[in-house]
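hey so i finally got around to running the thing on that chain from the lab meeting. sorry it took forever, my laptop kept dying and i had to restart like 3 times. anyway pasting the input first so we r on the same page abt which one it is
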Amino acid sequence: MLRLIEGEISRLSAPEAVARWLPVDIAAAPEGPRRQSWLAGRVMLAANCPSESLQALTYNQHGKPTFARPGAPHFNMSHSGDRIVLAVDDRAPVGVDIEILRPRRAWQRIAADYFCEEESHRLAALPQAEQLLAFWRSWTLREAVLKQRGGSVWQMAALDVSPDALSQQNLFTGWHQSTTAMIAVCAAHPFDLNLSVMTGD
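ok and heres what got predicted. didnt touch it at all, straight out
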């Protein structure tokens, strides 16, 4: 089963939430701008994977964390602004990306650098009012696929995310869009995308 949980970094990293969900020493938390998102992510993992040890996480060459215990659930996280999302899959590796929907003046250049030529042309051919949302949808999808594979953003330009290519690789994707954010999920099996919200209480 694939679970998708969203929360607010500011609430999940608050001292009350940290004290409730992270009773162990949090000396490993980084200082500086990454501290709040790190704490919020650990709180989400502790609450949604209570039988796993957060001290026994391992990391691949691109920094993707996994639980060290054989048979443990797979997970992936993403954050944007004050929003954070956790995907937990009991069956296979999973990837998730969240992006706050916001203006991006240079999106055409970014698409030209990171999307295939055909997709850049397809985005440019859409009505202007639809282009930015379509860009964010393509971006979050690519990030989710790369993260499911344990890859790096530097591999994005070579990524074929057409439905035919993904189906040949037995990858399945889904989106959740609110008025302020886009979330994309990629898994190695079909899934229903049900989003729950964690408040930290």
